[in-house]
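User: Modeling request: complex.
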Amino acid sequence: GAVVSQHPSWVICKSGTSVKIECRSLDFQATTMFWYRQFPKQSLMLMATSNEGSKATYEQGVEKDKFLINHASLTLSTLTVTSAHPEDSSFYICSARIAGDSYEQYFGPGTRLTVT
Amino acid sequence: LAKTTQPISMDSYEGQEVNITCSHNNIATNDYITWYQQFPSQGPRFIIQGYKTKVTNEVASLFIPADRKSSTLSLPRVSLSDTAVYYCLVEDSGAGSYQLTFGKGTKLSVIP
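Assistant: Request completed. Predicted assembly structure:
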């Protein structure tokens, strides 16, 4: 089956530093990847859509200069949280769609970010 | 942008059939309906997807009436391991853009 991995699975960083999260499709090519954020006991909130070889599309209210997304290949997208603050602490989840496939999203296991 | 409404929580005994309904009154022609399951601190897992009428796979059935303003996920004979949050998602991928709206989710608790 289609597998998506994320690295790291959890990270703790100090306020003001930057953190990079990787999302990889392991056994398929993904022209589109999505980045979500999920706070405790809340639903997933779409942050941005990442298209291979082009700029990401950010949802309203998401700061593109703070959450840098790079989709450099058909199997890798990265999310960098710049100048992290405690309020950025959350569960970050990526998903990917198989190129030319249906609307099914394959989700990664998520990355728990804690900013101290 | 289609908004979805689901019950916040449901309880069920093991072995029973569970039906979770999602309302999506503003669903558009291009929209598909997808249900996901999420366990704590994990990414969601695809359960089933449909456009209209009935869809069935090895784990669930999805019923969508003709007006498509709602959908019902049916889980046959639930077990304790089905305790999770279930999300209804309406997806619009028309014209190359993506409108992804997750509902608040339904927390299903299966009781032994």
